[in-house]
Amino acid sequence: MARDVDLAAPAPTAMRRPDAPSVEVTRHLLQYLLSGQFAPGDRIPSERKLAEALEIGRASVREAIKSLNLLGLVVVRQGDGTYLTRSTSSLLPEVIEWGLLLGERHVADLIEARTNLEAFNALLAAERGTDEQVGELWQRLEAMRSAGEDYAAYVQADIDFHSHVARMTGNEVLTNLASSFQSLLRVWAAKVIEASGDTAARAAEHEPIAAAIASRDAEAARREMDFHMHDAARRLREAIASEDSAG
Known about the structure:
By secondary structure, the protein is mainly alpha-helical. It has helices at residues 22-33, 47-54, 58-70, 88-102, 107-128, 131-145, 151-168, 172-196, 199-204, 207-214, 218-246; strands at residues 74-77, 81-84. It contains 11 helices and 2 strands. A hairpin with a 3-residue loop joins β1 and β2.
């Protein structure tokens, strides 16, 4: 049975920056979840209680919980509450990585590294991928096309597409690197999709990538992925700049 964890000691330290950007709130909640009070399956305090304890607005808490939900740290059950999904021991190494995401000054380097990695992965995927893997790649593209206005479903389908391209390289290191980059940028990717509201256009950008990989044209696959990633990088940078100005 899930436990309800209240704001008994040790409580989260009140934040003294009421106008802090949402990423700062998210970082603070991450620290709170690692305080030792919680176990997997526990229900965390309500938005109202968290907002009172942290001395911030409920809207900021709601945005932070949404980010943690996207990262897979919590699950929101409508009408029931928000629950921790993983143990703190499994969260710790990932939180260290996510600290890079939440420290926005490093995101530009992260975007640059991912852009070049994805292009190289596409090249190798065209050279090494099996016919079965090519078929699975088209299926992942179709999932993106059919997501419609379900932005969370689109983001997951997008991640699945790029993860599959990485697996097609047959290189475990490249696959793991791609997975790490995707985890670090997932929240920002979701913000970009929600802001544009155009999943169809974003899905269409992946079609020439899949076609080049399917035709075993390694250079075309690299070129198409590079074009897509540079465009995606521009949108990410714009989203981050918007977040900074809002904070």
